[in-house]
Design goal:
Radius of gyration: 19 Å
Helix content: 55-70%
Number of helices: 9
Shape: elongated
């Protein structure tokens, strides 16, 4: 059975799929979760706290997928992470925004302002640079013999396919995978 916090995040996510974030009201989220509004405020403090928790959850889900891709029995783990990145960003607008920093209309945005005590509210979601560094470092650690720079290049290629997608789901994966494999080939220099 999900905790009240999980139920509230699920309810907020459902509300977000039905309408833009700026129209989602706390009372609606509480009703969807079948809890009191006070429970919602006790858990997240403010609407901004709820938004930040939604973003953090999306980032954590994306990173869990990165970890699964890195433990999969595949010969090329960086390419597996790149494909996961493409799929996750295509399926989840919050993940896409977290990866690219482009906050489409209707999405909650990270709130980096301090709370009333001068502290940032809760555990903040990572900015795109932080998320890229986390994934790059995980890729390098899980891929012995693969330089962190190569991991970053593969990830940046995947992000470029997120930002400028190729039409068609299957085409995106196959074309992106070809690009990634081509980028991984050693450069052969001709002697002059």
């Amino acid at each position: 059975m999900p905790t009240a916090r999980e139920a509230l995040l699920d309810a907020a996510r459902r509300a977000l799929t039905d309408r833009p974030w700026h129209t989602v009201r706390m009372v609606d989220v509480a009703a969807l979760a079948d809890v009191s509004r006070q429970t919602l405020y006790n858990e997240f403090g403010t609407r901004g706290g709820l938004a930040e928790a939604l973003l953090r959850r999306a980032a954590d889900g994306y990173l869990a997928g990165v970890d699964r891709a890195l433990t999969a029995p595949v010969p090329d783990r960086p390419a597996a992470v790149a494909l996961w990145t493409l799929r996750a960003a295509r399926q989840d607008a919050l993940v896409r925004a977290l990866l690219t920093g482009h906050w489409a209309e209707g999405l909650p945005r990270p709130d980096r302002r301090p709370d009333s005590r001068g502290r940032p509210g809760g555990r903040p979601s990572p900015c795109p640079e932080e998320l890229l560094a986390l994934v790059r470092d995980r890729m390098a650690a899980a891929s012995p013999g693969v330089a962190a720079g190569r991991c970053e290049i593969v990830l940046r290629l995947a992000l470029s396919c997120v930002i400028a997608p190729v039409p068609g789901d299957d085409a995106t994966d196959s074309r992106a995978l070809r690009l990634l494999r081509e980028a991984e080939r050693p450069v052969v220099r001709e002697r002059v």
